[in-house]
Structure formats: C-alpha cells, structure tokens
Task: inverse folding
C-alpha cells in the first residue's frame, strides 16, 4: 500500500526548516498561536513541535504561548456555555466547587502545543488565573513574573513585555480571531478604555486583592475574587487582521501542512490601536 503525500510525517527537522523559510530567526522572541492538527501528522506530537520551535529561536530566543483558562470566569463565552443548561442551584454548586487556579498544575486551555510548552522542562508560567502565558528561554522567569490580576493582556502583562521586546507572532493554522496582540491594543487605543468587572477563583493564600474586594470561599479550595479590567472584545479581530494585511508586511507560508503567518507584534498592536480608535465608539472607563 502506497502512503499518500498528505499522510507523510511532518518531522521535527521539517518544522525547523519551514520556520526558517517563513522568517523565524535565532535570537528572536516568538509568540505562538498554533493548531497541532493543522500541521499534519507530527511524530512525537506537540512536544516535538515545541522542540522545533525552541531550535528555531535558538538558545538566546524565547518561545511564548498563551495558557489561558477561560472557564475560570463568570464572564467568558466558555464559562457561559458551560452553565447555560444548568439550574440556578446547579450554577451555585458549580461556582462553589470550582478549584482555584494553580499556575504549576492547572492545565492550559489553549490546545496541545500550549500545554506541551507549559509542561516542558525549563518552562515558566505567569500567575494570572484567566489569561496566563508560558515561556521557554533564558529570561522566561522574568518575562512571566508580575502578571497583575487587573491586567489580563495589557502593558504590564507578559504580552505587553513581548511587545516591548519586538517579538514576532506566529499563527499556524489559526486565524486572526486568535491574535492576542489585538487585545493589547484595547488598552492603548484611547487614554481611558472602557472597563468592566471580572471574577475568577484564586487560591486563598495568593494575597491578591481585586478592585471590589468581594470574595466568596468555595468548596473547591479557592475564593471568587472580583476586579476591574479593560473590556476585551474579539468580535472584530478578523476585520482588523484583513485590514492589517493590506497595510503592512505579513509573511505567509506553510509549516508542515499549516497555513502560517508571521508578523511583528508591536507593529500589529500599533495598527490595531489606530483601527480601534477609528472604528470603535470611545466610551470613557
């Protein structure tokens, strides 16, 4: 039996080669949004992809992935979908039983490659209970340190640090709906971006205090903490991405079988902030 070309393995070596052709260079800082399935059959799975990414940026570069946990929320779409069919009593029981976020143990909610990097030797993770990141590289600990509760994806988050480090963003098999850099623009497009109240479960020993100070201890070992942060809305991200590609250079190519884009994070954030200033109603926070 002859194996079809589409079923040939996408080896680690091939992934490194394809990343080089796309424009990933040694020493760069790379924020990765990737679908493992889109790459094709990769022997070794997500761990092999992480290894290839690390080789592509070399020992002086960093690979960073979102490791967010949207279910730890009262406002996210993931959370709302989960409780949609529950009775009020069941919702309350669910809230009380939800375990606290643990940056060392809580799995990533962002896919297999994200989870493989989070659990890789030498990886560091930020401590935000909803919008954490994980990184590998020589300064991963510093990059992931001090992620404020009231700054999901803003200037003081790892995302903000990456923008200041002139990071690149690799999108492999995903669209602009997954481009977290556009969320950073939501903090920057107006001097006083609109805000809202969020809530998540944190460990009682973290010492983190939200804006409101409202806490409810649950059976899951944590407490619900309310706090304020910028309104995050990704509904127009595909529109922003389409406009971005008409105005600035976005490198395109394939890594394995995945259609990929490589773009400058700070340049994309600047463009998105200008787009939002023109197209979003600006309501003071």
Result:
């Amino acid at each position: 039996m002859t194996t079809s070309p589409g079923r040939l393995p996408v080896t680690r070596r091939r992934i490194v080669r394809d990343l080089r052709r796309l424009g990933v260079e040694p020493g760069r800082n790379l924020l990765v949004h990737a679908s493992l399935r889109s790459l094709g059959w990769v022997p070794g799975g997500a761990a092999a992809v992480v290894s290839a990414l690390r080789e592509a940026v070399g020992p002086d570069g960093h690979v960073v992935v979102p490791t967010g946990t949207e279910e730890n929320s009262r406002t996210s779409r993931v959370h709302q979908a989960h409780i949609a069919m529950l009775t009020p009593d069941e919702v309350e029981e669910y809230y009380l039983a939800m375990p606290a976020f643990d940056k060392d143990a809580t799995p990533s909610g962002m896919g297999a490659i994200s989870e493989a990097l989070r659990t890789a030797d030498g990886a560091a993770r930020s401590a935000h209970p909803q919008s954490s990141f994980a990184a590998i590289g020589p300064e991963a600990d510093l990059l992931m340190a001090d992620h404020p509760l009231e700054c999901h994806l803003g200037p003081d988050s790892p995302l903000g640090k990456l923008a200041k480090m002139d990071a690149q963003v690799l999108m492999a098999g995903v669209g602009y709906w997954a481009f977290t850099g556009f969320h950073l623009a939501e903090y920057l497009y107006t001097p006083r971006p609109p805000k809202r109240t969020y809530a998540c479960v944190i460990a009682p020993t973290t010492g983190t205090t939200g804006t409101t100070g409202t806490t409810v201890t649950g059976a899951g070992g944590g407490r619900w903490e309310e706090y304020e942060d910028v309104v995050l809305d990704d509904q127009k991200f595909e529109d922003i991405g389409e406009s971005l590609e008409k105005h600035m250079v976005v490198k395109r190519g394939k890594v394995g079988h995945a259609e990929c884009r490589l773009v400058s994070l700070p340049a994309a954030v600047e463009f998105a902030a200008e787009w939002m200033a023109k197209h979003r109603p600006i309501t003071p926070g």
Q: What stands out?
A: Residues 5-69+107-192+234-279 form one domain. The beta strands are 29-34, 62-66, 124-125, 133-136, 168-172, 195-202, 215-217, 223-230, 251-255, 258-264.
